[in-house]
Amino acid sequence: MRAYQERYIENIKEIDALRNIFTHAHASFPEWQESRIRARERMRLLKEENLALLFDNLFPALDCLHEAGEEELSSLAEFAEALMDGSTNLDCGIYILIHDALLSLARFHRDVDGTIRELYKLGMGLYYQNRSVIGVENETANSLRFQDEMAFTEAGSYIRFFEEFGNDETKGYIIRSLANIAVSTKNTRKRIATSARVLEIVQDKAYRACAPSLPWDRFLRMTYQQMSSNRHIMSKGDLSKEELSEVLFACQVVFQPEADNDKPNVRWLWPYYEMEYSCGFVDLKTTLLRMEKLISRAKFDEYDPSGLYANVQLPIYYGKLMAENPELQKKPRHVYFLREAYQKMMRTLLTYPVEALNDYLMYYVNLVVTDYLEIEGVASYREVTACLMQRYTGEQYVTSCLVGEAASLICRAIISEDAHFFDDIPFIKECPEEEKEKRLMDYARDCGIYHDFGLLKLNMSRFLWMRTMFEQEERIYQLHTLCASEDLRERPSTAHFADIALGHHRWYNGSGGYPESYERNRSPYRQMTDVIALSDALCGYYEGDIKEAAEKVQKLSHKQFSPMAAASLSDEALLKELEALMQKGPSSIYREIYDSIHGITL
Amino acid sequence: MNTQDTRDNNRIAQLEERVQRAQDALAAQETFLSNMSHDIRTPMNAIVGMTALAKKHIDEKARVMDALNKIEVASTHLLSLINEVLDISRINSGRLSIGEELFSLGDMLHDILIIIRPQMEGKGHHFTFSVGEVFAEDLHGDPLRLRQIFVNIINNAVKYTPDGGEISVRVSVEPPEEEAGKRAFLLFTCRDNGIGMSEEFLKKLFVPFERDASVAASGIEGTGLGMGIVKSLVEAMSGTIQVESRLGEGTGVTIRVPLRFEEAGSHTGELWGKRLLILEGSREQQDIYRQYLGEAGIAFETAPSMPEALAMLTDAQLHEKSFDGIILGADTGDANCLEIAAYLHKAYPALPLVLASEADWEKIEYRAGRCGIHTFIPVPFFRKSLLRGLDEALSQKSTAGTFGSAPDFSGRHILLAEDNLINREIACEILGSTNAEIDTAEDGKQALDLYLSKPEGYYDLVLMDVQMPVMDGYEATKAIRESGRSDAMPIRIFAMTANTFAEDIARARAAGMNGHIAKPIDISKLMQMLRQIL
Fold first, then answer.
1. Interface contacts (A, B; CB < 8 Å)
2. Cβ(B264)–Cβ(B137) under 8 Å?
């Protein structure tokens, strides 16, 4: 690798470590606070350096790719592999950028082997990049997912000419691409059909003889594992006999080695149990007992794939079964078990070592955010997600707190002028007059904390510290508003933050921003959304002079920002308070966060 | 009874019948007036109420915008209502005239499908559209009135069929009945399995203002004018209309209109021997391609899905059997055709992409351009329009540079004659976004003077209001055409008028105008027209 490439990777690793506000949390508050201030400054410098490394080295190299020699090309490929190896995703965007460029080069030179290899690599990069939007149903998400499916489809389409390639490595990419169509497509039937076809191919002696050096048995095992992942749709009743038998058999194949193992991998043991339940071979009670046993057996600090599956995936699935069978929610035994399982799950997620952070873990965080069951007797969604934001969005959470703090000051100034300004919000209207101001300011603080909640699910907050985003990443980033509003709205403890998360990037007059689905006039929370949007911008614009920042906001009044909210920034007393808050910056809220971290039972 | 008595009795009977008819007509008219006053008041309430609301919240742009949107919807509804009443009035006074211009059947059907699809989907109807034998695809007639007729019939099917019903439309063009006949027959059939009509009502179907009492009571909106207008229009075109219906079983409407036609040419330009890849999942569409492309000597391979298409492209790449272009058809499976286009454009940038789709081009034009679509062929298409589109795409007459809402017409000069200040400002604002240079005149005389004061060939386009003081648009146009300058005849002059009746359009043409733009100006239509002209 080139020196700039190594430096870039070191910087990203350092940023990932610095973002974690749990680092040094056992130190005293002043020491921790000091370390956080240093961390923020250091991250700012690292981001600047990273951008310079890209602009001065990588981008010129990609611009002149046609003139690049073998050494340059292999250094780029090596750099890309170091950025993303399938489990550790240091910088998927740069990985995609490099392989996209290499693909163009291969196509240009009509290098079919190179084209197939780069299609596979590009498909992998896009798949990992788009993994965070799995489950999100909208045009943008579908469009993003389509890209990796097509890259794999194009590379896999060379299977018809398998024998014509002399290079086993290329043949391996063709098989793996074909298999990955099943991973990337959202069409269930296509998934099953693709896996079935790959199973036929990898067991076909002719294919094996044609490329003897390929790890055929590994391909076979992985394809069965992939096929077994379709078990969750078995109970929906829309699979044919053939499809059902394919999935059933795969579950059996995957299960067998684990059943004979003293310490089975829960990840491959569970599909069989789930399949038995989906097919009605065992009842709900037995399934819950099996699950309880597997969850209880795992220790919270088992961070390997089996441990994570038992500690995170199974509790979430337990909750899903309780959601599907509401009578279970009335049975203290199950509620008690769920509470304990969720607590252990959180302990696993909050203590997960920062140096081992990987993409797989972020998938589990996404799972918790999406499927957590909020019922009486278990920790609220709000408590759980606040901990996860602190742990996984790190300093971004601190910035959100600052936005909330500024918003609460603005709200106070507004209601001092017009006591009923926020009365469209039902619980504010119903609030006794003497409590209204405090209730409103608390609500504004919480709205600030939750306005960027979607970044947690999409694992996008790290980009804000790492480098500027590519267009594709920006498209994913923008989904944070939609993702957050859906998840927050579903749970009573967070439902009143949903509109704020949805609408804070949409312009006041509806002429710009995103998402278009936010209809300001229909939202009873619109005034608070307006304030959070304004506060968010004010914090962003602040560069040492609050009046300048306020002027910038006011220039966009009526268009991007609410005129009523923007008018509040003419209040000198408010500007003084905001100036004081901004000057202290995150320091003003570190104490609260420090206490909050220490309040988490680990 | 003597002869005189018999004659008197007959007279009395006739008079009684006339009185009864007059009373029926009066009753129908009263019901109509009562319905109309309700139908007019409803959107008017919205307009008045929303205007007041917008004024009250004038500082809240978002709320004002919401109110304006609602006013726009209500105004459009009101306008269509008024148009129907005006049509009836013109029919009753014998002033109905039918225009005649060359039009493409495919384009007209495409427009109809765009209009009716959302309503079909809104009510969950299963809609089948099929095209039979098409003897000629370029016809002479009044496409706007034909569209009005067909949309009206289909709208009735949508309205009077309970949700989730079956509606089918079939269109064909039959050859002239005599060998040397000059008119082909456009045949349109629409069938539904809706509520149908009683025999009694069927007799009064075309009587203006009549509505089936049970239907009116059920709250289905309507004025009882539509079918009367349709019949009058069909008859004015020397066509026929037949309606069959049974209560509770459904209705079938068949319309047959004679139209002059253009002979189909056999020229296929540079397309002979070209090789195309067609991504099309629909078997019916595949058959259509097979027929038209086969006749034109164009080789092609059909892929029913994107994976198949990619396999064919990789095969072509491996074995050097290159394609000359790709057609993305109406059925591209699960995948969105624009996503597919974006991928193919990136992977195979040298291959022209043609989109053949039912989609509303105006709505997708910008995105399609960004996704690399070179040419759009509206579906349904026929031989000529398909080959014309392919010829354009394959000869690289790309329209890629014209995507986007405001094209760049820097260096072009437009003369705008309009006496109304606001209209002038609006038109200037729209035209100004294209970077074209605009000169304005407040009447026809000023326009003529400006035209004469500039060097020959200076103006690329004249937009001429029709009704203006001092000198009207017709006179000004005539004077320009008769000025004897070298650019007097080639210069394009378009009328800008809210009056879009056929005879007035004919008058504009007679005065030497090339066409017209309806007022109020629709930005996208104006842009489309500017792209075509400039």
1. 60
2. yes
